[in-house]
Design goal:
Layout (H helix, E strand, L loop, with lengths): L3 E8 L3 H7 L2 E8 L6 E5 L4 E6 L10 H4 L4 E8 L4 E8 L2 E9 L10 E4 L5 H18 L8 H11 L15 E6 L10
Antiparallel strand pairs: 1-4, 1-5, 2-9, 3-4, 3-9, 5-6, 6-7, 7-8
């Protein structure tokens, strides 16, 4: 059984504006891994990332509205069914999307795209298609194309959920909780 998660990263907006738009608030719980249902972390290059242990979290957000504050890149993966998607939004418009679903007729080779893809896409795609071609003969159960949307998002933001912290790149996630509205006294 694999992971199911999503994340979105915003560049150009403060962490507080990002969290306010998403109706989230930080707690005082910190860690090197996103072990909570929702976690946030400031990345290099002015990106702030929100990670969810829910593959539908990022897609359920108002990404067009959030992208009014800055560039948004989102990513979702359901490894147990081999589906992955990444996309970019800016100024209220979706710029591109990359989607892989191994249950489509093309199987492990399925990959759809839309919009103006980032410059790194072609190189990433060629790399994983070459790996998939090798695996088709030797390990037909391996799905390398699943990594294409994830790797494009990683190259653009510098974030990958599975990377371990290092001395050069420490990670400090903070637990996030939904913001309680004034009338939701039971959530306080």
């Amino acid at each position: 059984m694999g992971f199911a998660y999503s994340w979105l990263a915003v560049r150009g907006a403060s962490a507080s504006n990002t969290l306010r738009h998403l109706d989230l608030q930080p707690t005082d719980q910190e860690g090197t891994h996103p072990t909570w249902p929702l976690a946030g972390m400031q990345l290099d290059d002015d990106w702030y990332v929100v990670v969810a242990k829910d593959a539908d979290f990022a897609a359920a957000q108002d990404l067009a509205g959030l992208s009014q504050f800055g560039e948004v890149i989102c990513c979702a993966v359901e490894e147990h069914v081999m589906i992955a998607t990444s996309a970019s939004w800016h100024h209220g418009q979706q710029l591109w999307q990359i989607h892989h679903d191994s249950h489509q007729p093309a199987g492990h080779h399925h990959l759809t795209t839309s919009g103006t893809l980032p410059a790194c896409y072609q190189r990433v795609c060629e790399e994983f298609v070459a790996q998939q071609t090798l695996c088709d003969d030797q390990q037909p159960e391996v799905d390398c194309i699943l990594e294409v949307p994830l790797e494009v998002a990683r190259q653009l933001t510098g974030f990958a959920i599975y990377e371990e912290p290092t001395a050069d790149h420490p990670r400090s996630f903070v637990q996030l909780l939904p913001t309680a509205k004034w009338w939701q006294f039971w959530k306080r």
